[in-house]
């Protein structure tokens, strides 16, 4: 069992509360194959939207370019939404500050220095080049 399988099993179990406030299962449909892919992703909530930070090296997000419907297992409830990718580096930088406000512990593992609760702008710009955000508008 790999790490993603373990996290997926926990999120589907009654023990989901250990992870559910920052991790969910996201299901996307392949644009060409129509096959569904489910992966655990970190998220934060802002109003009626969920924001997911991911690496540009990953491939699952490419199925969301131009916008796509997605399903999520969020706090052990099936939820639907519409996802769009944010690839522009400057926009990703701005989103990164909001992400770090919601998840300040994520700064250190990403190599972002923080002084007086403010992320280092050079570090954020460097990290933004390799990342993107997925914005998911919840349905209903």
Summarize the structure.
The protein is an alpha+beta fold. It has helices at residues 3-12, 89-102, 107-110, 121-128, and strands at residues 23-29, 36-42, 44-46, 49-55, 68-74, 77-86, 114-115, 118-119, 131-138. It has four helices and nine strands; from the N terminus they run αββββββααββαβ.
Rg computed from alpha carbons, rounded to a whole number of angstroms: 15 Å
Instruction: Please tell me what the overall shape is.
Output: globular
Low-confidence segments, given as residue ranges, are: none
Question: Based on DSSP secondary structure assignment, what is the total number of beta strands?
Answer: 9
Notable traits:
single chain; alpha+beta; seven-stranded antiparallel beta sheet
Structural notes for this entry:
It contains four helices and nine strands; from the N terminus they run H-E-E-E-E-E-E-H-H-E-E-H-E. By secondary structure, the protein is α+β, with helices and mostly antiparallel strands. A hairpin with a 2-residue loop joins strand 5 (68-74) and strand 6 (77-86). Helix 2 crosses helix 4. The longest helix has 14 residues, at 89-102.
Break the fold down into its secondary structure elements and pairings.
Layout: H1 3-12, E1 23-29, E2 36-42, E3 44-46, E4 49-55, E5 68-74, E6 77-86, H2 89-102, H3 107-110, E7 114-115, E8 118-119, H4 121-128, E9 131-138
Helix pairs in contact: 2-4
């Amino acid at each position: 069992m790999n790490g993603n399988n373990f996290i997926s099993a926990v999120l589907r179990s009654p023990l989901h509360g250990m992870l559910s406030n920052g991790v969910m299962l996201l299901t996307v449909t392949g644009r060409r194959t129509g096959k569904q892919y489910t992966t655990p992703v970190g998220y934060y909530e802002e109003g009626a939207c969920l924001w997911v930070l991911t690496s540009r090296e990953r491939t699952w997000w490419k199925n969301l370019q131009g916008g796509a419907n997605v399903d999520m297992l969020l706090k052990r409830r099936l939820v639907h939404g519409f996802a769009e990718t944010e690839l522009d580096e400057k926009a990703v930088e701005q989103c990164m500050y909001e992400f770090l406000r919601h998840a300040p512990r994520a700064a250190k593992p990403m190599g972002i220095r923080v002084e007086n609760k403010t992320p280092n702008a050079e570090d954020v710009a460097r990290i933004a080049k390799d990342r993107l955000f997925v914005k998911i508008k919840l349905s209903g």
